[in-house]
Amino acid sequence: MTGDMQERGQRRGVAAEVERQLAVCRSRCRSEAVRPAVALTIGQWRTVESILHAEIGQWHEGRGIDPASGDTGFIVLAAVRYSLSRPRDAARLCTGWLRTHWNHLRERDRADILADILRHSAEAGGETGSDEADPWTEFAEWVRAERAEADEPALAPLANYRLGILARSPRGYAPSDTQIQALRNRGLVEPTGRLDAEGRREWTITQAGRNALDRQP
């Protein structure tokens, strides 16, 4: 073991001991029967904690990983490739983690991961051996939906106003209404198949339209 590795190991050991004693010290506030090995005040322990936080950084912060790191991208891609050939439970765990961290991964890592998933789905040909939905296919569809939302142009004020009206109840519009046609082209409204009292075609908002309204500032 090199000197650097020994030093890192020592720091982690110190941090772990400080965290243990900090937890005990916090418990002492609730029970005088629990006495920490080093009787510092809570304020003093917080000072120690902040110093260690600055000293050993990410490890002390949560022993987590940095999704934006190239090393993380490599490990995640390896985990995905392993899980692609494993039972369905592995796929659920893997895609669940990916959904949580997807937007924090590097773009190149996302592209590589999605390419592998799509290749796997194409080779599987939709045969999952179960009536249950394939987690990989569901994840690929989720990514597509996320992209579509990100690429969706912002609503103009008039379109936002019109959708707000239709969100409350269906309403009739003349065939010459270009705003309604533009909203229909984006899948935000659809005809109900009925005519209003004045003989105009009745329109209602779609779920995509409601989602677009929800995304408005």
* pLDDT averaged over residues: 76
Number of helices: 10
H/E element sequence: HHHHHHHHEHEEH
Task: Give the fraction of residues assigned to helices.
Answer: 55-70%
Strand order of the largest sheet: 1-3-2
How many β-strand stretches?
Answer: 3
The SS-based structural class is mainly alpha
Q: Could you please describe the fold and organization of this structure?
A:
- With 217 residues, the protein is mainly alpha-helical.
- It contains ten helices and three strands, in the order ααααααααβαββα.
- Helix content is 64%, strand content 7%.
- Strand 2 (189-195) and strand 3 form a beta hairpin.
What are the key terms here?
7% strand; single chain; 3-stranded antiparallel β-sheet; mainly alpha; 217 residues
Quick summary of this structure?
With 217 residues, this protein is mainly alpha-helical. The protein has helices at residues 3-28, 42-56, 58-62, 70-84, 88-101, 107-124, 135-151, 157-168, 178-185, 207-214, and strands at residues 171-173, 189-195, 201-205. A hairpin with a 5-residue loop joins strand 2 and strand 3.
